[in-house]
Amino acid sequence: MQERFRELRKALGLSQDDFGRKLGVTRGVITNIELGKVPPKDLFVSLVCDTFGVNRTWIETGEGEMFNDLGPDAAFERLCTEIAASDDEFLKRAMRAYWELSDDRKQAVRDFIDQLAGK
């Protein structure tokens, strides 16, 4: 299971610090789990699955898909979590700038992006 914790964390683009912070534990806890020094408790596995939409069967056995089939809201939340934890400062600035625009300007940006995408 330790390898899957590391694989999950990397798939989310999170450092051990960030992964632990989102789960309310220290980097040391994450390090010990990933190194196999401490097996994760059942409650912690549940927390990981609930927080990140992880398929519990996958985390425990390696079978199936890493993530549960998420609805659009949960998938968007996970994407926001990944962006927040990333080093892509341009994307973060762009998202903040868009969010602060007036409705008219947001529509202009959407129209521009649709043109770029060929829609």
From TrEMBL:
SUPFAM superfamilies xref list: lambda repressor-like DNA-binding domains (SSF47413)
Alphabetized GO MF terms: DNA binding
Domain HTH cro/C1-type as annotated: residue spans: 5-59
PROSITE patterns, per the entry: HTH_CROC1
One Pfam family cited in the UniProt record for this chain: HTH_3
Annotated InterPro entries: Cro/C1-type_HTH, Lambda_DNA-bd_dom_sf
Name used for this protein in its record: HTH cro/C1-type domain-containing protein
Native organism: Butyricicoccus pullicaecorum 1.2
